[in-house]
Every structure is written in structure tokens, then in C-alpha cells.
Design a protein that fits this description.
The chain is an alpha+beta fold. Helix content is 29%, strand content 26%. The protein is built from 8 helices and 18 strands. The strands form 5 sheets. A 5-stranded mixed sheet has the order 1-5-2-6-17. Strands 8, 11, 12, 13 and 14 form a 5-stranded antiparallel sheet that branches. It is elongated. The two termini are 28 Å apart. 44% of the residues are buried. The protein binds zinc ion. Zinc ion binds next to α1.
Length: 333
């Protein structure tokens, strides 16, 4: 879904982008996740409220306000609500960018501006990640025989492969600006038949979240080298889940200064410039040459979580931030 306003032959084109897809519902909701019951005690509860339909609404308001105030000559303004952000973006922004004749000069991508609290940081980059499954087999026999030659546990082989991965420079080094270069997490582990039997088969689904600067070819080579020295095999995750590239706007880019000025004007504080912990559509836009800031109401900890919510105050702040940022970027000419 795209709304377009302003010049057909722009010398400046700005994009506000929010994804409209949401994460799976999950259990534990005390309010109807799809009910749209309105605000309770200043909170709007519902799936996608903080990730990231609240921001989509705030962007739509900021877009309409800017158009109503009148866009300067030569300015084109786009607001896009896209799909497939939560599952890699190949069928979302990537598909759009492959065929799009719009080429925005800058973008604001909606994601919560905080992990625990709203407005913790202005995200000028986003971590990416790589995903894969480790498989191992063992000798499924009487567990009293474990440790004898040739009697190996599939789960212990997985464990050894994980230890080799955690020992990689990728998972140990720190980047001076972004912190840990890579963080390995086992998101699912299966294997074994229970008491008395050496596990004959096991698998672990693994993610390594990556700071800006990581390159697919190098990361995959490092990972494969670590696993090759173990008794496990590796299967990359399908499609766009295999590699989500990290991204960052260079610190000296005018978009960063405009974002910081808008943040000060709209929220009354100096922003901490940081890297969003998860993957976002910003990387796809950045890869297409569109520098992108990441900002939005709410907090990441509430997302993908029962009783996800956003507050009315956060939504008002978000409208003010997007509006001020648009003004900053439009004045910049
Ligand atoms: Zn999101």
C-alpha cells in the first residue's frame, strides 16, 4: 500500500515505511488480540500495536499533516505499508524494490525506538543475522555404554558444534561502536529418547545476530569452518531467513543530523544513536541505496508478546517526531 503526494519530477523524495504484517499470535493474551477494543487506561492492546501498526497510524497522520501544510516545490512524499517484514522481506520490500521506479533519497522505517522503554535511542542501524539448523546422529544404544569407543550421543555432538561456533571470533569480538559482533542463540533443540538410551538423533536451530559490518560470504565461511570441525552437519534456513544483512547509516550522513534535531525538537532530549537489536526493512532499503533511520513508538520487549500494547502518549510523540523530521528534511534543501 503506497500513498504518494507532491512532485512528479522530484529533486527530493522521502519515504515513510511501516510494515503491516505481524508476528504469530501465541498464547497468554488477557485481551482480545484481534478485537481492536480501543484504549484502556491510555493503552491500546492488540497484536501489532507496538510492532508496528501504531507507528503506521502515526506515519499516516504525519504524512497527511505534511500534505495539508503544503509540500515545497520539487518534493515527493511517499508513505508505504508493506508485508513480509517478519519473515525476511523477500516478498515485501525486496519484491517492491526489484520493480519500483521510485527512488527515495531517504527513508524512515517504523520500529519501536526502545527495547525496555519507549524512546531509548535513535536507531541509525540495525543488526542482521544468519540462521541455520545443526543436525547430528549418534549410536542409539543402552546409555550405560556411553563413552565407549564409537558410542556417541547426538546431543553431545550438537553441543560440541555449538561450542566451536561460540568460540569463533565472530561470536567473541566487540565492535567499538556496536558492541558484540555476533550473538549466538539456540532457538530450538530436539533430540534423544529419554532415560536409558544414548540419543540417536538431534537437531538445533541456531541464530547468530550480527552487528553492522558483517558480510554474508565471510560470516557463512566462518560458520561452516567451525561446524566442519565437529560431527554435526549444517542446513541453512530457507529463503530470506538464511541471511538478514545488518545495516547502518554513516554517522556523517545528513539524515543522522536531521533525525537527531527532530528528536530534540519533538521529544526534548538528546538522542542516543544506536543500533536496533533486530533485523528490519531498513537493510533492504539501504541495500537499494536509500539511507534509512529507524524510529517508532512503543518498546521491542512488548512485541511478539501477549498483551502487546502501545500508549496514546507514545503515539502522539511519534506523530510529532515524524512531522518534525519531515520538516527537517524538507527544509534541508
Ligand atoms: Zn516490526
Amino acid at each position: 500500500m503506497v500513498a504518494i503526494a507532491g512532485s512528479d519530477d522530484p529533486d527530493r523524495c522521502l519515504l515513510l515505511a511501516a510494515h503491516l504484517d505481524t508476528h504469530a499470535l501465541g498464547d497468554g493474551w488477557t485481551a482480545d488480540p484481534l478485537g481492536g477494543d480501543g484504549f484502556r487506561d491510555g493503552r491500546l492492546v492488540g497484536r501489532g500495536s507496538t510492532d508496528i501498526k501504531g507507528a503506521a497510524a502515526a506515519m499516516a497522520v504525519a504524512f497527511a499533516q505534511a500534505v495539508r501544510r503544503g509540500l515545497p516545490a520539487g518534493v515527493r512524499l511517499l508513505f508505504a505499508g508493506n508485508a513480509d517484514e517478519e519473515t525476511g522481506g523477500l516478498h515485501g520490500w525486496q519484491a517492491v524494490l526489484d520493480e519500483w521506479d521510485e527512488r527515495p533519497h531517504a527513508a524512515v522505517v517504523a520500529e519501536p525506538s526502545g527495547v525496555d522503554d519507549p524512546w531509548e535511542a535513535l536507531y541509525v542501524g540495525a543488526r542482521g543475522g544468519t540462521r541455520f539448523t545443526l543436525h547430528a546422529s549418534g549410536e542409539g544404544t543402552h546409555s550405560s555404554l556411553a563413552g565407549r569407543p564409537g558410542v556417541d550421543s547426538a546431543l553431545e555432538r550438537i553441543d560440541a558444534a555449538l561450542a566451536a561456533l561460540r568460540a569463533l571470533p565472530l561470536c567473541r569480538d566487540h565492535d567499538p561502536r556496536w558492541g558484540p559482533r555476533g550473538r549466538l542463540t539456540v532457538v530450538r533443540c530436539e533430540g534423544g529418547d529419554g532415560w536409558g538410551r544414548v540419543p540417536a538423533a538431534a537437531r538445533a536451530e541456531v541464530e547468530i545476530r550480527l552487528a553492522p559490518g558483517a558480510e554474508q560470504v565471510e560470516v557463512e565461511a566462518e560458520v561452516l569452518r567451525a561446524v566442519a570441525g565437529s560431527d554435526a552437519t549444517l542446513e541453512w534456513a530457507p529463503g530470506g531467513l538464511r541471511w538478514i544483512g545488518p545495516s547502518a547509516v554513516p554517522e556523517e550522513h545528513p539524515l543522522v543530523a536531521a533525525g537527531a534535531a527532530a528528536w530534540r525538537a519533538a521529544l526534548g532530549s538528546d538522542p542516543v544513536l544506536a543500533c536496533f537489536p533486530g533485523g528490519t526493512d531498513a537493510r533492504l532499503l539501504q541495500d537499494a541505496g536509500i539511507p534509512s533511520l529507524i524510529a517508532g513508538p512503543g518498546a521491542l520487549r512488548r512485541a511478539h508478546h501477549p498483551d502487546e500494547y502501545v500508549t496514546a502518549d507514545e503515539l502522539h510523540d511519534a506523530v510529532r517526531l515524524y512531522s518534525t523530521l519531515l520538516d527537517q528534511l524538507l527544509d534541508e534543501r
